[in-house]
Amino acid sequence: MSQTIQDNKFVELSYKVIDQKSGETLVSVEFPIGYVHGVSSTLDSSVTMELEGKKKGDVIEVPIDCNILYGPRDESLVFTDAIENVPEEYREVGTTITMENSKGEPRNFIVTRMDDKTLTVDGNNPLCGRMVIFRLEVLNVREATLEEIEVGGAVVPDVEVDGARKMPI
After folding, report:
1. Are 138 and 148 in contact (CB under 8 A)?
2. What is the pLDDT of residue 65?
3. 3-state class (DSSP) for residue 85
4. What is the C-alpha to C-alpha distance for residues 86 and 99, in angstroms, rounded to an integer?
5. How crowded is the C-beta side of 106, counted as CA atoms within 13 Å?
6. d(CA 82, CA 118)
7. What SS3 string covers 35-82?
8. Whether the Cβ atoms of residue 112 and residue 92 lie closer than 8 Å to each other
9. Residue 109: in which H helix or E strand, if any?
10. How do residues 91-141 score in pLDDT, each as one tens digit?
11. Whole-angstrom Cα distance, residue 126 to residue 122?
12. 157 pLDDT more than 80
């Protein structure tokens, strides 16, 4: 008998984020994500509500306004600088750079453009300003262990390496 998604069930999903306007896949997961339904805040509540009652093999599509999820696009988070002011290791489009503001709070910036003279970074979430569809496939539903319920997701066991207990990376 197939289990359905409800509180305290461990759920494994694969998903894609699809731009509503272009139909382009913006994000897809290489490895399934796992969470404990009703405990973890890994997924937006609009997504978990749609997953309620679904079972292994079900596919759902949830439209999401990323302005609500990530906030509106903020052009003050886009900076362009002379290429010679940027360390070599950051001179590639798609590279993530973590910077701190004056309060010491970290924020990720992504290199979005580069030419011979300048490099541009953007601190906005790449999905800001987009209407997307989260397409999720339920890969597995099972009873969560007490430990999984406590942490809200998968628990990775200790691994023994050369006679010593190590946490896997």
Report:
1. no
2. 92
3. helix
4. 13
5. 4
6. 4
7. EECCCCCCCCHHHHHHHCCCECCCEEEEEEEHHHHHCCCCHHHEEEEE
8. no
9. strand 106-114
10. 999 999 998 888 988 999 999 999 999 999 999 998 888 999 999 999 999
11. 8
12. no
pLDDT band at 168 (very low <50, low <70, confident <90, very high): very low
Query: Residue 1: what pLDDT?
Result: 56
Sequence-distant (6+) residues with CB within 8 A of 106 are 98, 99, 100
Gap between the Cα atoms of 28 and 76, Å rounded = 28
**Locate tokens 């994000």: which residue?**
27
Token pair listed for 41: 């805040």
CB-side neighbour CA atoms (13 Å) of 145: 9
CATH code at 9-69+128-153? 3.10.50.40
Of residues 86, 121, 92, 118, the one with CA closest to residue 107: 121
Question: What are 145's two structure tokens?
Answer: 């262990």
**94: amino acid identity, one letter:** G
Fold adopted by 74-122: Thrombin, subunit H (2.40.10)
- CATH 3.10.50.40 domain span(s) along the chain: 9-69+128-153
Tell me how far the alpha carbon of residue 64 is from its chain's centroid.
14
Q: Token pair for residue 106?
A: 């970290």
Residue ranges matching CATH 2.40.10.330 in the chain: 74-122
